[in-house]
Structures are given as C-alpha cells and as structure tokens.
Design goal:
CATH superfamily of the largest domain: Winged helix-like DNA-binding domain superfamily/Winged helix DNA-binding domain
Order of helices and strands: HHEHHEEHHH
CATH architecture of the largest domain: Orthogonal Bundle
Mean pLDDT: 89
Radius of gyration: 18 Å
Structural class: mainly alpha
Strand content: 5-15%
Number of strands: 3
Strand order of the largest sheet: 1-3-2
C-alpha cells in the first residue's frame, strides 16, 4: 500500500467531508424557509448586489454556468428572483431579487451564528474560524491560479 493513497493522508477527503457536513448542518435551518444551501448562496450574492449578470453569480460562487442556470430557473419558479435580458448587452441575463427573495434576508440573518453557537467545541470560536477561513481562501486562490495555467 502506498502511503500517499491512504484515505487518512488526504486533505481533499477532509475538505470534501467538511463541506458535506456543513451543508448537512444548514439543512434544518434552511428547510423551514423552503430553500436549499446552493439557493442560500445565490441569495447571499444577490443580497450584497442585486441586479447582477449571471456571470457575476457564477464567478462569485466559483461554479459553472451549467450548474447555476438550472438553480436560477428553480429559484425563479419559486418566486425568489427574476431573470431578464440586459439592456446594454442583450446576450446577458440579469438576475434580480423579488420581494420574497429580499424578505428572506431577514429570516436568514441569524443562520451563520446558529451553526457556531450549536457547538461547545472551542476550536469553533470566532478567531479560529476566521483563521481557518483565511487558510481556505489561500488554498482556493492557489487552486484557481493553477486552473488558469492549464
């Protein structure tokens, strides 16, 4: 057995597992609001800047258009947002929140703190989480740069 192929030696497995468990932890908070975690991420982008092109959403979420478009279609059917052709560039699709989409921001404002407060683990204190976020940001930036070189 090659040690580099042991599951316990894989950073990628830890990241995958943490991502899956974080998404799972959000479910009981988002289900009563009728939204999924990916929809929550789209809403956060739009709460920061409404009326944005699809390309900005894909860029901010680091997702492909093929992933985001069906998500936006479902959200539009659920009355959370609308999609319209751009005035300046008709090839662009501009995404805007509906009244319902804007109102969800109020319902979601306590969600980030709920996850942290749900644990007595000191490793989840705000300073440790900020340090982890910075480390993950560096990893993401490094991986994005390596993708551009290929």
């Amino acid at each position: 057995m090659y040690p580099q192929l042991k599951l316990e030696n894989q950073l990628c497995f830890r990241l995958y597992t943490a991502s899956r468990l974080v998404t799972q932890a959000y479910r009981p908070l988002l289900d009563p609001l009728g939204i999924t975690y990916p929809q929550y991420l789209v809403l956060m982008v739009l709460w920061e800047h409404d009326n944005v092109p699809v390309g900005e959403i894909t860029s901010r979420l680091r997702l492909d258009t093929n992933t985001v478009t069906p998500l936006l279609q479902r959200m539009e059917k659920e009355g959370l947002l609308v999609r319209n052709r751009g005035f300046v560039d008709g090839r662009q699709t501009i995404v805007s929140l509906t009244k319902r989409g804007r109102q969800l921001q109020e319902d979601c404002k306590t969600i980030p703190a709920c996850l942290r407060l749900g644990s007595d683990d000191e490793s989840l204190d705000l300073d440790n989480l900020k340090a982890l976020a910075a480390t993950l940001d560096n990893l993401i930036q490094t991986l994005d740069k390596s993708d551009e070189k290929q």
